[in-house]
From TrEMBL:
Protein name: Uncharacterized protein
Domain of life, per lineage: Eukaryota
Biological classification of the source: Eukaryota, Fungi, Dikarya, Ascomycota, Pezizomycotina
Bias kind Acidic residues: ranges: 206-216
Region (Disordered): 183-216
Ranges of Polar residues composition bias in the record: 183-194
């Protein structure tokens, strides 16, 4: 089972945009998320961490004067080496976040990635024979963001690499560059992106809050 979410959760002056994948199969239940803010990553083993408290990504933040889970020795997930696993699930997320208009169903990322039909599951994709393919994809087309917009602004050009009918693409560039100010009120809001039709309300903390899911 594969679920994917393209999220954009406005809260206060910042928009928490992210792309997320849950991959469930025999022997594994994996959650993988790429956030726009700092292009932060989260990787969880939902089989034994349902509340997502232990981020297994190699670049996860570490506690003060300590090490993160990966650097502390947790270098596998469901028996898979995490660095190798990341390259496979990142490629699957690339397909799911942007695929459209192809003869192969977009909800079948392995079929999109291996159109001759050699791979039908994560277990198949983890075979050593595909290392070079996924190493190259992760180096050139890793899921990420180039710009983060505030107030529900969306620009596909800011969402990094895309999956097309012809395979991976480097994507386009966001049309508007924010200023270097640390105050988001000084950022430009004009864009070729799409303004979200949002029903806003003021939360208990006095910040603007809202929620919407963008399924591409």
């Amino acid at each position: 089972m594969i679920n994917t979410i393209n999220g954009n959760h406005p809260k206060g002056k910042f928009v928490n945009s992210y792309k997320s994948l849950r991959l469930v199969g025999k022997g594994y239940d994996i959650s993988y998320t790429v956030h726009c803010h700092k292009n932060a990553h989260e990787l969880y083993n939902l089989a034994n961490d349902r509340v997502q408290m232990k981020n297994l990504h190699p670049n996860a933040p570490a506690p003060l004067n300590g090490k993160n889970a990966f650097d502390s020795g947790e270098t596998t997930l469901a028996g898979f080496p995490i660095p190798k696993l990341l390259k496979r699930i990142d490629a699957a997320l690339l397909v799911l976040k942007s695929c459209k208009g192809t003869a192969i169903p977009c909800y079948k990322p392995w079929a999109q990635l291996h159109q001759i039909g050699q791979v039908n599951s994560l277990h198949d994709a983890m075979a050593d024979q595909w290392d070079e393919k996924y190493d190259k994809m992760y180096e050139e087309y890793k899921v990420g963001f180039t710009k983060c917009f505030k107030n529900g602004k969306v620009d596909i050009g800011a969402e990094g690499p895309q999956w097309t009918a012809d395979g991976p693409s480097a994507g386009s560039n966001a049309m508007v560059l924010f200023s270097n100010s640390t105050d988001p009120d000084q950022w430009s809001t004009s864009s070729n992106g799409t303004d979200v039709d949002e029903s806003w309300f003021v939360g208990k903390d006095g910040e603007e809050e809202g929620l919407w899911d963008d399924w591409e």
